[in-house]
Specification:
Blueprint (H helix, E strand, L loop, with lengths): L1 H16 L1 E6 L8 E15 L5 E11 L11 E4 L2 E12 L2 E9 L1
Antiparallel strand pairs: 1-2, 1-4, 2-3, 3-6, 4-5, 5-6
């Protein structure tokens, strides 16, 4: 019951805040999902030694229900910008938190 409620909250949050995106596999030419809502946090803190902030890195939040298996080097296009998946930083409550790099 609680997991279902948390998944519903995650879905609403991504629907409201997320931006429509097309998601592709590493070498894909056709998207495996279109119009899914992905949130990008461009100000995720990266901490260095002793917990000191060393900088900031973009992190994407993708719903597991939209992409059941996020893989390294997959990519998505959002508002004309392409983001590549580096790795999953954590998975919880039906969401992937993914370290991403904006491709020029």
């Amino acid at each position: 019951m609680i997991k279902s409620l948390l998944a519903d909250i995650a879905r609403v949050t991504n629907d409201v805040i997320g931006v429509s995106s097309d998601y592709y596999r590493k070498n894909g030419t056709e998207p495996i999902a279109t119009g899914i809502k992905i949130i990008i946090d461009n100000a995720k803190e990266v901490k260095g030694d002793f917990g000191v902030i060393a900088g900031y890195q973009p992190e994407a939040i993708i719903l597991v229900s939209d992409i059941p298996q996020v893989k390294t080097h997959d990519f998505f296009i959002q508002d004309g910008e392409t983001y590549r998946v580096n790795f999953i930083t954590k998975q919880s409550n039906g969401k992937y938190y993914v370290d991403v790099v904006k491709i020029q």
